[in-house]
Input
Amino acid sequence: MKSGQIAINGLSMYYEIHGEGFPLVLLHGALSATGSSFGKYIPELAQSHQVIALEMQAHGHTADIDRPLRVRTMADDTVAALKELGVEQADVFGYSMGAGIALDVAIRYPQLVRKLVVASLSFNKSGFHPGLLEGMQFLRPEHLDGSPWQQEYARVAPNPAAFPALLEKIKDMNSNLSEWSEAEVRSIQAPTLIVLGDSDVVLEHAVQMFRLLGGGVSGDTPAGLPKSRFAVLPATSHTMMVDRAELLLPMLSAFLAD
Output
């Protein structure tokens, strides 16, 4: 494993590289970092890919700077980091907040993304269950004491005492949530694997996204299967996605290899 820091957009972004092969970029969820989002996925993925895990502003090993957290800004940071690493094209796998970043990269930088994997993603607010975003505004740091995210942050962050500040920035980000139009989603050129848990984001919302990407049709016609795929993991909530490697890895590996 190789790791380091990249100076981009006023940020010193931490990255890890595992394995060799075609680049696969991993983008973690909010409050999380590489280990807590993808620790159970990286060993197998690195057997067939050069896995590049990036840690966003204020997350994991990457220190915060004086600007709000916004998905579009983090997408620009991601593209700048990949340019510094010499990556011209990659497969991109994002989870939760990272899925939003991956989606934005695929829409605005289509030449960079060969295949796209988005797990637990809502492309607009209709994908959230009623009251969820509002309820998150009442989340306090002590509610997360001992959680995998808090423990990881305490272990790797440049300033472990800044966890409450990160939580406030995420609450602000949720109040200014990035949304994408149906036309923007439909414009995605990369074959896309949409993944969610059966107790995750609103199922009908994810189905709508699949239809926008050419899914929801019979694969037994002369046109064959759509280029995008849709997977629902059983007994899986939004936060449990990180622990479902045994379910997702076979589908993920087949999609990336196809």
